[in-house]
Structures are given as C-alpha cells and as structure tokens.
Amino acid sequence: MGYLNNRIRLALFASGSGSNAERICEYFLKHPQVEVVLIYSNKNNAGVFNRLKSYGIPYAHLENKESAKGKNLLALMNQNQIDFIALAGYLRLIPKELVEAYPNRIVNIHPALLPQYGGKGMYGHHVHKAVYDAGETYSGLTIHFVNEKFDEGNHICQVKTEIKGLKTADEIAAKVLRLEHQYYAAILEQVALSTIF
Which of 59, 103, 137, 194 would bridge 164 by S-S if both were Cys, CB 3.0 to 4.6 A apart? Predict the structure, then answer.
C-alpha cells in the first residue's frame, strides 16, 4: 500500500463531467501526503476523463456489468495500490467486496441533507428538483462513508445553506455545488490522514 511510504494513493470514482473530481485534483496537486493516482468511471466516454486529461492521471473504465462484480473492481484497486477512494458524482452502488476491503476508506458527497432526498435514483438534478418541489428553505451537502446501500453510510459532516428565495432547482444546484467545491477536498484530506496515519 502506498501509505507505507507516507503517501496516500487516492482513486476518484466519477460517472459524469467531474467538476468535483477536478477540484480534488487541484487541491492535492502538490500535497505532501495525498496523491490522486487513478480516475475510474463506469462510463467509457465520461466527461471526467476529458476534463482531467491535462493532469496526466491514469484512468480506467469497467462496464457496469463488470464493476457490479466486486472482485473485478477490487482487483483494479489492488493493481493500482489504492489506499483511499472518493466518489465524485459516481452513480453506481459500491459492491460488498470493495466496501469490506476499504472500511471507512470510501467517502461520498451527496448534494442534500441526508437522510432526506437520498437513496437509489436520487442524484444530481433529481435531488435538487425534489428539494425545490418540497418547498424546503434549506438544503446543503452531506459527506459520508460508503456502505452497501445508497447514501446510508455514517455521516462525516453536513453543510447547510439557505435556499429560500431561489426560484428554480438549477439555482439550488448551483449554490450547493459551490459548497461542494469549497468543502469536499479539505474534508477528504482530514479523513484520509486521520484514517490511514
């Protein structure tokens, strides 16, 4: 494992355009103890690959059918000597084999205040539309450990923001995304260092 050399080898999992993944890469670019060494996606044409091309970080892809077999995903992590995993807009359920191999070393960010507006199918615009349709006056983000169910792992932190007066789900999405970019990488750093060292 990389952390034996005082370097934590971090893999980023993303299914979409990868704006959070890019912020994380920026944050850890010259970090003395944490290095992003793999970008993984379940989509071979995911926007994250193109977005992060300039960073020169290796990337990998497995079809959904293959990644659902946890041993395949675990083998990929082992091949790359991954110590810690961060989900950044990754839309697949993490298989049991990976959860068990990385206890408290897989972290996700969800664009709402869990346990509300979480679970299967609740991602991206679906979340913000549900929050808007419910007439909520607050939303925010939840950073949590990953278990074998969508959005049910133990919470690490939540950040709450007022959305009263915002006129569309897109406005809520934009405000929450700014918070995600502000907090996620720093929280990942704290959790990775405290978990592994």
Answer: 137
The residue behind tokens 């913000």 is: 128
Two tokens at 37?
A: 């060494």
- Helix then strand then coil, in percent of the chain rounded to 5, is 40, 20, 40
Domains of the chain in start order, with CATH, are 2-109+142-158+181-196 (3.40.50.170)
Distance of alpha carbon 136 from the chain centroid: 24
Contact criterion met (CB below 8 Å) for 176 and 159: no
Q: CB-based contacts of 1: which residues, under 8 Å, 6+ apart?
A: 9, 81, 83
Residue positions annotated with a catalytic role: 110
What size, in residues, is the chain? Answer: 197
What stretches of the chain show up as alpha helix (H) in DSSP? 19-27, 47-51, 64-67, 70-79, 96-101, 124-133, 169-196
Residue 104, helix vs strand vs coil: coil
Q: How far, in Å, CA of 113 to CA of 161, rounded?
A: 10
Q: Say which residue, 66 or 167, is predicted with more confidence.
A: 167
Asked whether 93 and 150 are in contact (CB, 8 A), the reply is: yes
**Model pTM score:** 0.95
pLDDT per residue as tens digits for the range 49-95: 999 999 999 999 998 888 888 899 999 999 999 999 999 999 999 99
Q: Are residues 142 and 110 in contact, defined by beta-carbon separation less than 8 angstroms? A: yes
Residues 108, 35: contact at Cβ < 8 Å? no
